[in-house]
Design goal:
The complex is a heterodimer of chains A (about 500) and B (about 475). Chain A has about 500 residues and is mainly alpha-helical. Chain A has 20 helices and two strands. Chain A has a two-stranded antiparallel ribbon with strand order 1-2. Chain B is mainly α. In chain B, the strands form two sheets. Chain B has a three-stranded antiparallel beta sheet with strand order 4-3-5. A two-stranded antiparallel ribbon of chain B has the order 1-2. In chain B, a hairpin with a 2-residue loop joins strand 3 and strand 4. Chain B is globular. Classes of the chains: A mainly alpha (about 500), B mainly alpha (about 475).
Chain lengths: ~500, ~475
């Protein structure tokens, strides 16, 4: 397989799967589902090959592919992977098969359209994480919106239309200004004829202030909406709550990471000076988000909304780590992106399992579920503890590194943010207690049955990852360390 | 007596004009059931003309003693006009024969309008531009009123004719003033003219005349009513061919002729563009009729197109050309779909009529989704590349505010375009809505889908093609 364009194969494998699924007769739903699952598993296989061959200890971009795309405008088809994108690519390809598998019970109509949308979404996500040309990046970034719009709008809950439009208008307005900033970056990159959209070239010569600050603002807005950073988070509870379970899983686990990935990939290296100058602002917003998200989660009566709001809190941590601008903070931030994907993806699956049985997401409709579904209770406990960042689970490593990094940057950041860790334990345990413990109080008791084998298969890989990262974080951290170090040096050097 | 070289350079126009006459005459001898031959004839003429346009290339900057040119602008914009005419012909045929309209006259008028747009693309003299403008407009007035028994169609034709004639007068008066100042109607002579108030007024009047044809705010008021009243294939054709003609003339006049005085007109064009984008997109938000939605969409796109002209650069001009090609494909594609949806043989032009289309015909719904995504300017489609192109030109020319209005306006447009796409995938289809369409319409749809995606994913050959017009403008 040497010399194969592995990254291109990776990016376009899901779309090829979508094409196959599209020509299968729509009545053969099971065949379509298997096609989707197979395509996403094959994609995961390609990522594992890349993960294994990935050279540790170098910040260089690996598996690079470059081809002329639109020569007249200096736009290239340029893909590459480094320590920052590798964990997210892995996360995407792990989550996708699980989300597809979970759709087998939660999505009953228009299976074909759903499978095609999910696979197209996977291609767009992988392309976003692997593009090293700004226009190519933007194309994939915006292309994510269309399948996600349909997933929320067609298979979602009662207020799905409203949620889908809110999602797309919110995120599209952010990215619109980013497009302007991308073009301005290009125009600034040299005399006519020698201009470029290439990330590697652009980061070597950051534009001067104050233009850099404006461009930073345009990029930061697009990313902050996607993350979402407080106070731009208001699209998120609606989108998450209304989306079908697999949609929520992908949205929380992967889509939100596009924003935080953007922080690391574009904001810091392309605008180092502005990043340093505005880091306190972003950190402040992140900390408000951590506390606000946690407090609001506590007040929710709808489980999906609770988990959704908890994402605002958790992604506040990720943002905090990114703008602490220390190696520990950034390492933790990157690791926590993966962790949040696993644990919150898992939490949405947990809620999905309950919803499939009773068609209710309200906490009031549940009680004593542990007595009816003991295995499920155990699984839910592990996922929840991971989300609470208990030592031994993946969340602990990530949050610890972030707090350490934040402490190095300014002790007060860490002290205030640590409050969020406690709050997250409060609202998660509160939810757990209401649902699982106490006297059995569910609407249709007969339907609340133990996890099926397929549902168990959903959780096994997640639990394995929770402990694998929790106990052996080195596998991921060692692969990202060189890239993170180089990034921090770059930001420091712009002083 | 024109030289043979001059005539040779005019072959595409002669082919189209000859075909129009031949179709008109032959139609009177053909029995009604054999009218399909006329469609084949018209299509063959358009293909032959397009072939000639490409073969002749961009090598003859001056024919008929400088009144006409076969340069890059002619090449690129005549290609766009012929593409639009060919697709519109494919859409119209089935409708015209189904609605028992006079097929021969219809095709002849369609060809003549295409000829008008072609002449506008090649003109280097204001009189020629005017001739092209009239050759384009008059058939469109007639076509708008073509469904003689339909009151709405009559009203549309009348309205279009009255307002159109009025705007033509503006244009003519503009020519008179420019002639008064420069003593000539030739565009190269105009470029060298010294700047006076009279000249500026004259140019302003020319701009009004062209802005009317392109449906640029505040000269757009006719468009929604006319578009809604005219028979669907006519609306489709009008929204494309009038834009090609008007923008060809705008490019010839502004970046082509007045590039040295660009500071004086870029601001005005940028203001018009901003107004057009804002008003077109906001008005489109509230439409429930697909026809009316596409009418406002065509106004909005005139605003986006105008960004490229307002940038005042040759790069902006080639952006306009690319955008026109993209616009032709995606708009005619969307109209093709609107044409296929019928209720008891009548047009079903409400957005709600598309409900559940996907469960009946996933391929059609998929195609329409591609057009809507492209019209909204989202990747990976032609619409995105077109917008990218004109925004980049505006930013390069320092028109940052214009580009920002442009990107935000396209976010607004995503709302109403995606609503159409959403409608098709949700709910159950209404019982009395059916699909009708022959192989021609299907062919046009396929060409449009493939074109929109190809221009979006592999735009390089087409960008290289449209850039040929940059030499002609320098």
């Amino acid at each position: 397989m040497r010399g194969w364009p592995l990254l291109s194969i990776l990016v376009f494998l899901p779309v090829a799967g979508a094409a196959v699924a599209a020509i299968v007769d729509r009545r053969r739903e099971q065949a379509i589902r298997w096609t989707g699952l197979a395509a996403s598993l094959l994609t995961l296989g390609v990522v594992l090959v890349i993960f294994e061959r990935f050279a540790v200890g170098t910040p260089a971009v690996q598996f690079e592919e470059r081809a002329v795309w639109i020569p007249a405008a200096g736009i290239a088809y340029h893909l590459g992977i480094d320590g920052i994108s590798l964990p997210l690519v892995l996360l995407t390809t792990v989550i996708m098969p699980l989300a597809l598998l979970s759709s087998w019970s939660s999505v009953g109509d228009r299976v074909k359209e759903f499978t095609v949308s999910m696979l197209v979404l996977e291609t767009a996500l992988l392309g976003t994480f692997l593009s090293l040309d700004l226009v190519l990046f933007y194309v994939f970034w915006d292309a994510v919106l269309i399948p996600m719009y349909f997933i929320i709008g067609l298979w979602g809950g009662p207020r799905r239309v409203y949620a889908a439009f809110k999602f797309i208008l919110y995120t599209a307005s952010g990215s619109a200004l980013m497009l302007v900033a991308i073009i301005v970056l290009y125009l600034q990159s040299g005399p006519a004829g020698a201009r470029t959209f290439d990330w590697l070239a652009l980061r070597e010569a950051p534009v001067a202030m104050p233009l850099q600050a404006w461009l930073f603002a345009a990029f930061a807005l697009a990313f902050a909406i996607k993350v979402p950073l407080w106070p731009l988070h208001t699209w998120l509870p609606d989108a998450h709550t209304e989306a079908p379970t697999p949609g929520s899983v992908v949205l929380a686990a992967v889509l939100l990471k596009m924003g935080t990935y953007g922080f690391l990939r574009f904001l810091l290296p392309l605008f180092p000076e502005a990043s340093r100058r505005f880091a306190p602002l972003l950190v402040t917003l992140a900390i408000i988000g951590i506390l606000y998200g946690a407090a609001v989660s506590w007040a929710q009566r709808d489980m999906k909304r609770l988990v959704a709001m908890s994402s605002v809190s958790h992604l506040g941590f990720v943002t905090l780590g990114a703008f602490a601008l220390t190696v520990e903070g950034l390492q933790g931030s990157l690791l926590q992106m993966v962790n949040h994907g696993i644990s919150t993806g898992g939490l949405f699956l947990v809620v999905g399992v309950l919803y499939d049985r009773t068609h209710s997401r309200l906490l009031d409709d549940y009680g004593g579920v542990a007595a009816l579904m003991p295995r499920f209770a155990a699984v839910a406990t592990i996922v929840m503890l991971s989300s609470m960042a208990l030592p031994g689970t993946n969340g602990f490593v990530g949050e610890f590194l972030i707090l350490l990094g934040a402490f190095r940057a300014a002790p007060v950041y860490a002290v205030v943010a640590a409050g969020g860790v406690i709050l997250s334990a409060v609202y998660l345990l509160w939810m757990y207690q209401r649902v699982m413990h106490g006297p059995v109080a569910v609407k249709e008791r007969a339907r609340v049955v133990e996890l099926s084998r397929r549902e168990l298969v959903l959780f096994v890989p997640l639990i394995a990852l929770i402990f694998w990262i929790g106990l052996f974080p080195g596998a991921l951290l060692s692969r990202s360390e060189a890239s993170i170090r180089a990034l921090v040096e770059r930001v420091e050097a712009a002083r | 007596m024109p030289s043979s070289a001059d005539l040779r350079a005019l072959t595409p126009e002669l082919i189209v004009a000859g075909a129009a006459l031949a179709v008109l005459v032959w139609a009177t001898f053909l029995p009604p059931q054999r009218q399909q031959i006329l469609r084949w004839m018209s299509a063959a003429a358009l293909v032959a003309a397009a072939w000639e346009v490409l073969v002749l290339g961009a090598g003859v900057p001056s024919v008929f003693s400088g009144m006409y040119a076969r340069d890059g602008v002619t090449l690129v914009l005549q290609s766009a006009a012929l593409l639009g005419a060919l697709l519109a012909l494919a859409l119209a045929g089935d409708y015209v024969e189904r609605a028992r309209l006079e097929a021969g006259e219809f095709y002849a008028l369609l060809l003549v309008a295409a000829l008008g747009a072609m002449v506008m693309a090649g003109s280097r003299d204001l009189i020629m531009v005017f001739l092209g403008l009239e050759t384009l407009s008059i058939p469109l007035y007639v076509l708008a009123a073509f469904a003689r028994t339909d009151l709405r169609s009559q009203e549309a034709g009348m309205k279009y004719f009255l307002l159109g004639a009025f705007s033509t007068v503006f244009f003519l008066y503009g020519i008179a003033l420019v002639y008064g100042v420069t003593g000539s109607t030739s565009l190269p002579r105009l470029a060298a003219a010294s700047d006076t108030l009279m000249l500026r007024v004259g140019l302003g009047l020319l701009l009004i005349g062209l802005a009317f044809k392109a449906a640029i705010v505040p000269f757009h008021a006719w468009a929604p009513d006319v578009y809604e009243g005219a028979p669907l294939p006519v609306t489709a054709y009008m929204s494309v061919i009038a834009k090609v003609g008007a923008f060809a003339a705008l490019l010839r006049l502004f970046p082509g002729t007045l590039h040295t005085q660009s500071v004086q007109w870029t601001g005005i064009l940028a203001a018009l563009s901003t107004l057009t984008m804002i008003l077109g997109n906001l008005a489109a938000l509230r439409q429930t009729s697909l026809k009316r939605l596409l009418a406002y969409s065509s106004i909005a796109h005139a605003g986006f197109l105008l960004i490229g002209v307002a940038s005042g650069t040759t790069q902006g001009a080639s952006g306009v050309a690319f955008y026109l090609l993209a616009y032709t494909l995606m708009t005619l594609g969307a109209f093709a779909l609107a044409l296929m949806v019928t209720r008891r043989g009548e047009e079903a032009d409400q957005i709600a009529d598309l409900t559940g289309l996907a469960s009946r015909s996933p391929a059609l719904a998929g195609a329409m989704t591609v057009f809507m995504v492209s019209l909204a300017g989202l990747p990976p489609t032609a619409g995105f590349v077109g917008k990218f192109y004109v925004f980049a030109a505006a930013l390069d020319a320092g028109q940052t505010a214009l580009a920002i209005v442009g990107v935000l306006a396209s976010v607004v447009s995503a709302y109403y375009y995606l609503r159409v796409a959403y409608t098709m995938f949700s709910g159950e289809p209404g019982g009395d809505v059916t699909f009708a369409g022959d192989r021609w319409v299907a062919g046009a749809l396929i060409v449009a889908v493939v074109g929109v995606l190809a221009l979006g994913v592999f735009p390089a050959p087409v960008t290289a093609f449209v850039q040929q017009l940059e030499q002609a403008l320098r």
